[in-house]
Amino acid sequence: MVDAFVFPGQGSQSVGMQADLAEAYPEVRETWAEASDVLGFDLWVLVQQGPSEQVDQTTVTQPAMLAAGVSAYRAFVAAGGAQPKVVAGHSLGEYSALVAAGCIAFADAMRVVKRRAELMQTAVPAGDGAMAAVLGLDDEALMQVCADVANGEVVEAVNFNAPGQVVIAGHAAAVARAIEAAKAVGARRAIPLPVSVPSHSSLMREAGKTLAESLADVAVSPPQITAIGATDALEYADADGIRDRLSRQVYSPVQWVRTSGAIIDAGVDRVVECGPGKVLAGLQRRIDRKVPVATLDSKSGLEAALN
After folding, report:
1. Which residues of 269-294 are buried (b: 16+ CB within 10 A; e: fewer)?
2. CB-based contact 279:14 (threshold 8 Å)
3. Which of 171, 174, 255, 273 has its CA 20 to 30 A from that of 142?
4. Annotation says 171 is catalytic
C-alpha cells in the first residue's frame, strides 16, 4: 500500500481529542509533552479539559493541531506503519506535513506556529474576523457574491476545499452578508466555522510578512519525501522556498482541490488523514471517490489503517 498522508488544520479541533490514542500509544503523550515544553503551559490538559471556547482560540488551536498531527503520525510509524510516499497539509497542517517530511524539527515548528498564531490573532481583533463554509455554489458564483457584498470591507474565497465547498473569510460583518447573499443565489448551506481569525484572507498579509522574520531563524532542510504545498499544489524543494511559501500561505488561499489532484498524480493507493476529525477524508471522497481513504483520528482508526 502506497500512502499519501494529509494533515488537517484549524476547524478539526475538539475538546478531548486523541484521548484514546494517548492511552494506546505513548508517542502521543510524548509529542504533546514536547509541545508543552516549548509553549510554557500544559497544552494537553487544556485541550482535554476545555472549555471549547478556549480550545477554539487560534493561539491554542494552531499548536494543538500541530501536536495532534505529528503525534498521530509518530504513533502510526511506531506501530509498524509504512512511511508515506507523499505528504501535504491543509493550512496549519502544512507544518505537520513538513515535520513528517523531515524539513523542520517538531520543536522548531511549534515555536514558529506559536508565533504564527499570535501574529494572526493580533492582526484582527477578536470578534472582528470570521470564516464560513459555503456549500452548493461554484467557485465563480461565490467569488462574485463576495465582491458584491464587500462594501469596502474584506470578504474573500480562501479555501477551495472541494467542488461546491468553499470557505470564505474576512471582516465578520462582510462574511455575514456573504452568507445571506450566497443562500439567496442558491447555496445549499453556509456554516460559520469555529475559528477566531480570518485565515488566508488579505487581512492576514502583515502577519505573514512579519512571520517571515521568525522563519528566517529556523533550520529548514529539503524534504526527505515528497511534500506538496497547498497554496499552489507544487512540491516543496529548497529551504528558502519553504520559508517563503510558509510566510505567504498565511494570507493566500488554500487550493485543496488542486493539491488533492497533485497527490493522486504522485501515484498513491490511499489517502490517510493524520490527525483528529475526518474533514480531509470527506473532502477526498468529494474530489475523487475512486481513491480509498483512512483516518488516524482514533485508536480504532489507526488500527484499521495499519491492517
Report:
1. ebbbbbbbbbbbbbbbbebbeebebb
2. no
3. 273
4. no
DSSP sequence for 79-95: TTPPPPSEEEESTTHHH
The answer, yes or no, to whether residue 56 has pLDDT greater than 90, is no
CA-based nearest residue to 302, from 38, 76, 5:
76
Q: Which of 36, 200, 201, 214 is catalytic?
A: 200
pTM above 0.85, yes or no: yes
pLDDT tens, residue by residue, 94-132: 999 999 999 999 999 999 999 999 999 999 988 899 999
Helices (H), the chain: 19-24, 26-39, 43-49, 52-55, 58-78, 93-100, 106-123, 139-149, 172-184, 205-215, 239-248, 256-265, 279-287, 299-306
Burial code (b: 16+ CB inside 10 Å, e: under 16) for 67-79 equals bbbbbbbbbbeee
**Nine-digit cell at 33?**
509533552
Distance (Å, whole) CA 265 – CA 259: 10
Q: Judge whether 91 counts as a catalytic residue.
A: yes
Q: Which of 12, 91, 196, 199 is catalytic?
A: 91
